[in-house]
Amino acid sequence: MRIGYLMNTYPVTSATFIRREIAALEGQGVSITRFAVRRWDQSLVDPLDQREAERCTYLLAPGARRLGVGALREALRNPRGMARAMAGAWALWRNAGRGARLRHIAYLLEAVELKSRAAGLSHIHAHFSTNTAAVALLCARLGGPGYSFTAHGPDEFVDPGPSSLALKTREARAVVAITHYARIRLALAGGMAQWDKLHVIRCGVDPEALAPAPAPDPEAPLLCIGRLCPQKAQLLLVRAMAALRKTHPRARMVLIGDGETRPEIEAAIRAHGLEAQIELRGWADNAAVSTALAEARALVLPSFAEGLPIVIMEAFARARPVISTYIAGIPELVDRDCGWLVPAGDEDALAQALSACLDADPDTLAAMGAEGRARVTTAHDLHHNAAQLRALFEALD
Q: 329-338, long-range: CB within 8 Å, 24+ apart, which pairs?
């Protein structure tokens, strides 16, 4: 079976789960051609990501002029397919609003390029229901391979009308939801007529590659991993650490990641005098992240918006409890038996959860970590879930 995987920007440091998913499928005999709309505009820190970039075909790489010539050639050779695709682009543009015309012309050009590169492939699978699903839809209308996509959230579900989520779902051969929460959001957008097309196949990690770590040092820091952005709410961690200073003066926090809110976070750390308690490490490769999890007391994600973060699965695989928020798919994996959940944005509840984690005895932390690892091994094993994907693709072939 030969299929294509389509991403917007690939590889990306914060989305290594796609690379791992592709590798797991290839390990099970699926031949995968990698496509992405564009390259990531930042440096890749992991050697595996760097090698993956060399294997990826970038749809915008030929440039606007060559893409335009390709579209004209396609129109001459395949007028019916181009007419169907243009009607699809018009429907996508109409739903998105008048200001999106150029963007949808670009989608059509990208779809033509994808079709020309997808010869011999039986299927295209897109990650996320945004522009990648739009390009896959237009490619299929041109006469290229049929498509499916994986929906993660949270941004994909914010405004499903302008994003044409119903249309993309209706024309897809199948849709993968990473959680039951994602499945119901897809059903709300596309209607219950699409229900049997929606498949819950969870993202995963390799439990064997992420062995349970020994008990943490009593002085081990709390750890937050993720892009520094408003949705991840790392600023609240600074405020919570400031609130804990009197009762837990030796508490420490490590943040791995980078992004647009870094200057604000740095300013808040200085304003609260927490330079010795909070460390910003920037992006790290997979090995460094795994080591940081092993050296941490617990993972903390105070997010306002998520799908179901892979890093929670990684923390559980390393037998570390998790502190996070009651949003989206997180409660499907995290509860009081393996961590602490608080309402998103509740600073007092977040500080109380951090305090409870810092006060927990080693046996309690070990029991939570063991429960988390058991859940990941059961529901989020990368190879098991890749087999589910392979079975789905085979059924569509």
A: 329/153, 329/178, 329/179, 329/180, 329/181, 329/182, 330/303, 330/306, 332/179, 332/180, 332/181, 332/308, 333/308, 333/375, 333/379, 333/380, 334/372, 337/368, 337/371, 338/368, 338/369, 338/371, 338/372, 338/375
Across-strand partners of 96? none
Band (394; pLDDT cuts 50, 70, 90): very high
Is residue 74 within 8 A of residue 44, CB to CB? The reply is no
Q: What is the pLDDT of residues 333-384, one digit of tens each?
A: 999 999 999 999 999 999 999 999 999 999 999 999 999 999 999 999 999 9
| Contact between residue 245 and residue 235 where contact means Cβ atoms under 8 Å apart | no
Pull the structure tokens for residue 70: 């390709």
Q: Tokens 């820091």 label which residue?
A: 221
Fold classified for 222-379: Rossmann fold (3.40.50)
What angle is formed at CA 329 by the lines to CA 324 and CA 335, rounded to 5 degrees? 50
Place of tokens 């335009």: 68
The span from the CA of 150 to the CA of 124, in Å, is: 11
Q: What pTM does this model have?
A: 0.91
Enclosing H/E stretch for 58: strand 56-58
- Per domain, the residue ranges of the chain are 2-204+381-396, 222-379
pLDDT (tens digit per residue) in 82-116: 999 999 999 999 999 877 888 999 999 999 999 99
Establish whether domains 2-204+381-396 and 222-379 are of one fold: yes
- Please give the backbone phi and psi of residue 218, each rounded to the nearest 5 degrees, phi first: -55, -25
Write out the CATH class of domain 2-204+381-396: alpha beta
